[in-house]
Protein: Bifunctional glutamine synthetase adenylyltransferase/adenylyl-removing enzyme
Organism: Saccharothrix australiensis
Amino acid sequence: MTDPARTPTSPARFGLTSEAGGEDLRAAGWWADRRPTAGSEPILWALSRSPDPDLALRGVDRLRVALGDGWPELDAALRSDEVLRGRLLAVLGASTALSDFLVANPDRWRSLVDPEPVTADVFASALPAAVRDLTGAEAVRALRLAYRALLCRIAAEDLAHVVEPDLPHVGYDEVAGLLSDLAVAALRAALDVARREVPRSDECSLAVIAMGKCGARELNYVSDVDVVFVGEGDLGVATRLAGALMSVAGQACFEVDAALRPEGKAGALVRTLEGHASYYQRWARTWEFQALLKARPVAGDADLGQRYLEVVRPLVWTAAEREDFVPDVQAMRRRVEDHVPAGLADRELKLGRGGLRDVEFAVQLLQLVHGRGDEELRIAATTAALAALGRGGYVGRTDAVDFGDAYRFLRILEHRLQLQRLLRTHLFPADDDVAGLRRLARSAGLAAEGGLSEAQVLLAEYRRRANQVRRLHEKLFYRPLLQAVANVPTEALRLTTVEATARLAALGYAAPDGALKHIEALTRGVSRRARIQTALLPVLLDLLAATPDPDGGLLAYRRVSEALAETPWYLRLLRDEGTVVDRLAALLGTSRLVPDLLVRAPEVLRLLADTQALTGRDPMTIGNPLRSAVARYSDLGRAVTAARSLRRHELLRVASADLLGLMSPRTVCVSLSEVWVAVLQAALDAAVRAAGERLASIAVIGMGRLGGRELGYSSDADVLFVCEAAPGVTDSDAVRYASAVVEQVRRLLSAPSQDPALQVDADLRPEGRQGPLVRTLESYRAYYAQWSELWEAQALLRARFVAGDAELGARFIDLVEPVRYPAGGLDAASVREIRRIKARVEAERLPRGADPSTHTKLGRGGLADVEWTVQLVQLRHAFEVPSLRTPSTVGGLRAACEAGLVSEEDAAALRESWVMATRARNAVVLVRGKPGDQLPTAGRDLAAVAGVMGHPEDPGAFLDSYRRTTRRARAVVERVFYGS
């Protein structure tokens, strides 16, 4: 027996089975009554590709019955004409409403034969011609018939490629434009009919302004057409004329909605041009300007319509200056979303999350904010405006493409859903509506793939696109930079050179001519980079104006921008992350250190968008990544270069967080100290690897602020080096080996660099600079037992193992314990000696001309005062108070207070002064970009330091506070240290 599926003309061969949707073939009467003859194969293949083969087949059968004797002509045309076959079977398989239209008007199939695409000119001539000299119901019937026939023609060209893949694909933008042009032609035809129906219509002028999707030429198959009417002359006649137009068009084609007029449905249907101008200037709300973005004269008095645009367009492009404009638009979108029924939110193509309104609101908001200064953004259509935003750099290229593609996909789905019954709907089929999903997938041109059915492919693609839209909507629509740009006056976006200079001077720029040159350099040309800078600079200029040094900040911004000109993400980051812009402006207008580091460590800029990433790293583990990265290099030079690079990254990260007030002084000090430790460890490891055979183990002992984990931005690394010979190696050979390794480390780290210096200072070693750089452990033991002086015991109070051989380092610390914590404490002579040394340091080492009241290190109540006081207490009492045995100044002060050796009040005064002096010293380095212990007392540097210290409004108050705090500490030093 022959398998039916193998019969040349069997339906199963073409996928027309119950599984493919062809189970109603016999019921349709086609297969039972007419066995396919020669030439049927193309028809059957086309039917199999139709959105709904059953529906298409029933439509063909109904046409056969309706045509009667005229059927053979259509039958022959279907077999031979690919264009007709694709168009007709696509329409019949996609739309029951258009099938009904063709069955009711069977000769209309001939309108689908013309291979040339339909155009707006066809609409403009056909619709007015259809109603010429007609009025009343007759005119409505004629207009309805002509409109529906042309709508069918658009749908046929839109869908034909689905059935016949070789036919041209008509994209969404073109289809939406054709539907809009058809609606405009219908409005004009309806106005012609209205003029004949309304007495004395020649006594007024009426302009019809299309709004919404019709105004933007992005209309749906089924949609209200939003309009506004402008009249001159007898407004009573004009109002009747507008009402008649709405009635004719509403009965024949679509509802005409005038609710976007001033005052909405409560307002007059027709207003004069002056009435519109007065309303929009005085009373209009934010959303009304958003609606005017798409206004376009389409019918009636063209001159009046153009004058209307000339009145309202300038108002549209200054609307973003309105108070709370951006929050108003954002709140409006949320209100729309909140009104979507909860059970339908995921299926609502238009209003739901990830729907069409997400795209439209985001695009319109970006246009209204940035279009004030960029006329190329003044485009009504969503997809065209999105492309312009992408070209202008206001939206990333990839984001613009993804947003546009997702929007077109969702609009195509909306079109296909509306075509089914020519009903206004935006509801995606439910997950269990397999037939509906399959029909929609096929009409949208989606095919089964990868083991997934057409319905499953559609669901996956719909969810992917909706998620994509929502992600991009939230990224663009709630972009913090939008509010900042909106706050910039429109006139500031388009200034002459003279006006710009005056504005810069008013903002506080000391050299506005120089600032203008920086702006011109950044925005010169027509590149995408220049356009993004043009959008960013008005905001940055305002932000920099609020910093201590606007001119220096703008120069630094230019330097950074030019240095990172080829970094693809740099401007994109500033455009998309408002937090980065705010923080970068604050840093550049305050610090000279940050710009220098930023051009060589630009990756830190990304961290400004994420507070946790900027500050969240545990300072005690900060050096681990550095050590791991450097360990990969066998070449010593490359290893040290890598260490420098990673140190630069961490230094900039810490400095940025510090300047922005996001990091405590202790965390700053510990972080800087641990970075130094990691650099030393990494460099030492690399030098040992490069030396080959290891003749000795080496340990590095941190001293001073490094030992106490209290380093600042400009601190050297005070260290001691200790070695121990390997088995079979003499001490002298071990010392020579270790000295060579250490010298190489010091030389490489201290090599000239644009980064803050990496000085390894070993002057605290036995015999100072005259003594050997490296000693064995036994040599140190012998020295400290016989020759060490009191100052060396004091220096050892802060000794801590930091790098190299940990076991050797621990033994060194054990060795010096009796030296720095002498049994019985200090005798009276030793206390006097320490006081004498301190007094000499104060007299001799304070720089000539320095102000003792504002010198952070050696001044009265400064770092040295507090540290010497704590160290004296440790030397006298640590032998009996174990908690005093700490290299930390603050830790030692806390222990002294808890042991009753210093009163709580005195300890608080010393701690407050030490912390303030530490912060101030760091702030000086950050602001000036170079080491310094003296506080500035006037000018921008003082303002910047005061700002870092929490006194941005009153630098004088900061100086008063600093002097008051250190004066209290000095009084404690006089009592506790000097015993006076």
About this structure: Confidence is low (pLDDT under 50) at residues 1-9, 17-29. The chain has 45 helices and ten strands.
